Amino acid sequence: MALGGGNFLTQNKVIPGTYINFISTRSGIVVNAERGVVGMGLELNWGPDGKIFAITAEEFAKNSLEILGYSYGSDELKGFRDVFKNATKLYAYRLNGGGAKASNTYAEALYSGTRGNDIKIVIKANVDDASRFDVSTYLNTSLVDVQTVKTAKELVANKFVKFKEGASLAATAGSNLIGGTNGTAGNESHQTFLNKMESYPDVNVIAYIDHPVSSQVNSEVTKGLYLSYAKRMRDEVGNKLQVVMYNYKGDSEACINVKNSSDLVYWVAGLEAAAGINKSVTNVLYDGEFDVPTEYTQLELEDAIKNGEFALHKVGENVRVLVDINSLVTLTEQKGDVFKDNQTIRVIDYIADNISSIFNEKYVGKVPNDDAGRISLKNDIRVIFKYLESVRAIEEFGDDDISVAKGEERKSVVISTNVTVIGAMEKLYMTTIIN
Length: 435
Prior knowledge:
Nuclear Transport Factor 2, Chain: A, 435 residues, 21 strands, seven-stranded mixed beta sheet, 3 domains, Immunoglobulin-like, four-stranded antiparallel beta sheet, Dna Ligase, domain 1, alpha/beta
């Protein structure tokens, strides 16, 4: 069982853990400062069925052919290249898994999917030993494996096929695998993906990718599911993540609503996942590969900001992020205007993640809830805030901004903190007096 986490309304939690509320003021221990992890459910033609599989930026650049079935520069991987412009790791899930594996007399594709139909087996007599065969595996025109054997029983599975031991080897110029199909992606596929993602607390952003009109996914319903998931992860489980979607008015700091195009979700997801706690992505240059519609008037861009839309706009010949905001538009005493800012969300998520880690690993069930124990906890928390101050994520932090007190139960601790987040410069107002 995982330790408890999320928000609290009253001090009535049952599971041991860390429960943290962030609210607006009215108008060394640094556990983890690394970011850059994205989770995506995708419709793919190749890859494992029924499980999350991790791809690092380095693995994608080197091994995309065996992982995803296409070479790094192929059009099919354009979205992946946009994600990895900034992301360091992607947790991927095949929404359309469960189809048929392509096969022929000699081999069966390692994974289900239509990409398996592009595999072929070429068998030739070995030039040095006529009793042996050179068995080659091709993906389209790319040679991906060669083995020299006497019988099929000696063949070892490679990254693309498993060989059939009972086959009789004979020279063939090329025998294609056939019958590979993709499964059907539906709303339940997304639910399965999100359920599995709960086991990956290091993810910073999950993304919903819009699918073709022919898809059986109800986008509006499924987007609502993603938003509910992100809110639950943040408020009940304690996994501080955001969801990036196209054209969805989430009205929540948990959701980033991309305005321009559904294709941009890849790039925005990677960008926001990797953004530092002391950085804003406002005015960041779009360096991805998709065409970005930017024909917006000044008034339309102003409305986009008011409506909580993450927009890109044209600045000279370049396309840049307008403002680093999420979809929150309805403000309350607990969540004021500052909660619209994604840099603020990154800072408070960092605080929550690190205090939770310290408390859960060092204090739960180990340290007495007396004055000495609470002073120790306060000192550990102070290190976190001093780090944030040193990297210019917060400012004007003093010892009076933390209090650690005994809770209503003898085993509970109540922490109150006051933090001022530093925002990146966005507006300049200048008055010049001419004499």
